[in-house]
Amino acid sequence: MRQDPTGTRRGFGFGGLRLWVLVLFAAYAGYYWFSNRTTDALTGEKVVIDKNISPQDEKALGLQAYQEILTQEQPLDPNSQIAQQVHEVAQRLIAKVPEVEDALASEHGMQAPHVEKSFDWAVNVLQSDQVNAFCLPGGKIAVYTGLVPVAQNADAMAVVLGHEISHALLRHGAQRLTEQKLEQIGQMAGAASGMDQNQMQAVMAVYGYGHALPYARKQETQADEMGLMLAAAACYNPREAIPLWQRMTEASGGSGQPEFASTHPNPGTRIQNLQALMPKALDYQSRFCKGAGSAAAAP
Ligand SMILES: [Zn+2]
Fold this sequence. Notes:
The protein is built from 10 helices and 5 strands; from the N terminus they run αββααβββααααααα. It has helices spanning 16-35, 55-72, 81-107, 148-151, 154-169, 172-186, 197-206, 217-233, 241-251, 267-288; strands at 37-39, 46-48, 122-126, 133-136, 140-144. The radius of gyration is 22 Å and the shape is globular.
């Protein structure tokens, strides 16, 4: 019950000027947030992407990051069996991107932005025990050899790559950069003009390279859904997503957390979500999987 006679004044130390500076910055942050808020055509959800960050800016950052990664990690011979299998999965998914985007956008009564038109896709398998894969903005894809025994089959590999490609198509990196800009405003870091080394590393991190800045959970859910539709449309078996995530959960029990397991504290929720999406995925399969592409459907 003792009272500190000096304690009552704590927390009221704002000078008038300091308060006004904070109010002005808060107003600017609010303006920045509202003026950059749009509805994503592919998910129907509200997103905040700085209008000054174009897909071309993202692509340039992605390319720069990819080149740096390829100097640090050894890519497998593109003619090796694993590299060719991964390449085929990626190509089949990429071929379905325009149709699946149109279908998703029409569910929300919108037009797909088709950012993939500006992409220069590339696929590499990197020699590493990490259970991981990523797709950078601009379409630069990498799969670590450590993922191969966990994926086990082409259907599961398609689910993982569909997920990673969806992060790039949904511009989740630009969303994260925008959040960073808001943080910078908050920290009064001054006007951030151009992309510096730190921002590039941040993009690399959010796209799965490293573990510093995982995707937000909502972004993970969006990538799961769109990725599943892509895999199904490309004639892969979407049902393989369930045992895949079970294996992934087991694999992530160790020290290295894969990007796609990083922000889901409850893997059961993810599996439930995927199970709920299964009828839609099978619908996408019947609509878009045509022709002789179903060779990989059996494990
Ligand atoms: Zn992810």
